[in-house]
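Hello Y.,

Per our agreement to keep a running log of every chain we model this quarter, I'm adding this entry. I've kept the format consistent with earlier entries: sequence first, then predicted structure.
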Amino acid sequence: MLDGGSADTYRLVLDESSFDFRGHDDEDVCRAVGLLNDLFEELNGGRHPVARWSDVYEFSCRDDLALHDVLFGRETALPDRDERQRLMRLLDRLPCWDDEEPAGVPLEVHIDECGPVFAPTVGYALLAATKQFSVACVTLPLAGQAGPRAVRGECGEGEVFFLASTEALPRFWRASMISEKVSESEFYRRGQDAFPNLVLHEGLSFGSFDGSYQNLRESVLAVLAEVNDRFAAVWDEVNGQPHEVEARMGSRGVDMSRESVKTRGSHKHMAMRDVDHDGKRFRCEWHAKLERHRNRIHFSLPDPALDGRVLIGLFVDHLPTA
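Predicted structure for the entry above:
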């Protein structure tokens, strides 16, 4: 099961230890359960379904009461019947990561030097991390776990990513691309998840840069992450004023600019920045610089034809300018 080349290995798993309701009143728990239900529906509508521990209903979450009792017990059930039943339906649909009981999964783990806590699913994700394979733990919002955390258990130590919202997913996929040292072809494939606001043109190649894929992977990923997360928002905030966009993105460590007036006035030079994609021509007149003197990532403005996304059109050493 925990084989990086296996299609059976789950990337997203439900952290049953986040169902620790102690210290939280019923209203907070019901609200968190509703948010988790929404998250399940979003995630399971995507390409990577969430898996769970087969005994999740037996997890002790309050005063020695199992999750099943707190959700559906005659005297102990939470008051929001609709959300309780929705959670049951959603949990029942999830596959179980331990159907084949992968060997070596620790049942107790330490997270950020706290614990130990009983968390078999976190142990599953930790074991995967020790094999250089990234698995994210989906948590109930009450847990307060977010982002990468240092985890250790009997199988070793590693970094496990925790998330309670779909907004955190791109960060997980980006981190996985670094920790797993993915191939160039996998970089583009995983880019669908890592950069949801971008379209990576099928003609992109790290071979067009001056330098190797291995040496440039992390710097390209960092630039694409900033363009994905901030470029469209900044463009709107400053009403498309190029110098303001450059300044704001520069404050985030990204050296980017629009082509100069002189270059934009040259049909010959601007044609080099035109990229055909899905039957339409896009002008990639903005570029980010990996270094001052070489290696550029050219991209378009957000385009309705791309559902508001940005086309990453060209990886180049340097295009001629007028």
